[in-house]
Design brief:
alpha+beta, 7-stranded mixed beta sheet, Fumarylacetoacetate hydrolase, domain 2, 6-stranded antiparallel beta sheet, 294 residues, Ureidoglycolate lyase
Length: 294
């Protein structure tokens, strides 16, 4: 199935998407609620959602839906860095034998379509196209052989990074957690709609006609199954947890001869084949603060 969470002239709801049309599944099945949390945790509820989708119901145009975060407050948001060889090389790193892992907080996230905010303290706002998975069945010490059974769905993520602040510490936390720099969505696609492990999908970032990154998820060092197994060695994964799987080469800080930072007034788009486009207009925090003060 393909889902989008958002509003269309009413309360926030979960919609099932078929082409340009969407069925309000929250209206059809009350237990679904207003985001994907309940569906991720309950396979039986997902089966009811499929039935409701087949039955039709309250239908709207997908274009009329203002996206919200697929899961309003994910319990854990883990990001994997340095997962494409050419990206590792452009950053000047050695190829690691264990993935670089870091976490994002809730305030750093925003829905697809919402503004990505360039902070007042830096102009070095960078883009990172990433595949993001949402955990369904939780667990600890999950084997690689069984790991894909724990995926509820896949979506698109832009891991917006403030590079000078990322370099202030070996842990990367500041540069990866500025408010409203991590765009998620808008579509979440269940695994049966994609190749196994979401492998072999074109992944791209762009501003207008300018292609910034273009690669394929087949080029990831650590696959979806690898990543789930590695992370679940040290922590219990729970339904609704998010895992971002790293970015391919072409990021702005590595552009030659000059870095390519995102600028206010631009719209950055991240597209993954079979999933969709996550578009974010870029605004300046100073301008945003001035507007709020008026």
């Amino acid at each position: 199935m393909r889902f989008i969470v958002g509003t269309a002239g009413g309360p926030q709801s979960v919609f099932g998407v078929e082409g340009s049309k969407a069925v309000n599944l929250s209206a059809a099945v009350g237990a679904i609620g207003s985001d994907l949390s309940a569906l991720a945790a309950d396979p039986a509820l997902l089966a009811r959602a499929r039935d409701a989708m087949a039955a039709g119901g309250e239908i709207v145009e997908v274009s009329s839906i203002t996206p919200a975060l697929p899961i309003t407050a994910p319990g854990t948001f883990i990001c994997l860095g340095l997962n494409y060889v050419e990206h590792i090389k452009e950053g000047g790193y050695e190829i690691p034998d264990y993935p670089a892992l870091f976490m994002r907080g809730r305030n750093s996230l925003m829905a697809a379509g919402a503004p990505m905010v360039r902070p007042a303290c830096s102009e070095r706002l960078d883009y990172e196209a990433e595949l993001l998975l949402i955990i369904g069945k939780g667990g600890r010490h999950i084997s690689r052989e069984n790991a894909l059974d724990h995926v509820f769905g896949y979506t698109v993520f832009n891991d917006g990074s403030v590079r000078d602040y990322q370099r202030k510490t070996h842990q990367w936390t500041p540069g990866k957690n500025f408010d409203s720099t991590g765009a998620v969505g808008p579509f979440v696609v269940t695994p049966d709609e994609l190749p196994e492990g979401a492998k072999g999908l074109k992944i791209e970032s762009r501003v207008g006609d300018e292609i910034l990154q273009s690669s394929n998820t087949a080029n990831m060092i650590w696959s979806v199954a690898d990543t789930i197994a590695i992370i679940s060695e040290y922590t219990t994964l729970e339904p609704g947890d998010h895992i971002a799987l790293g970015t391919p080469p072409g990021v702005g800080h590595a552009k030659k001869p000059n870095p390519r930072w995102l600028r206010p007034g631009e719209t950055v788009e991240i597209e993954i084949e079979g999933i969709g486009v996550c578009a974010s207009p870029v605004i300046d925090e100073v301008a945003l603060s001035n507007e709020a003060a008026e």
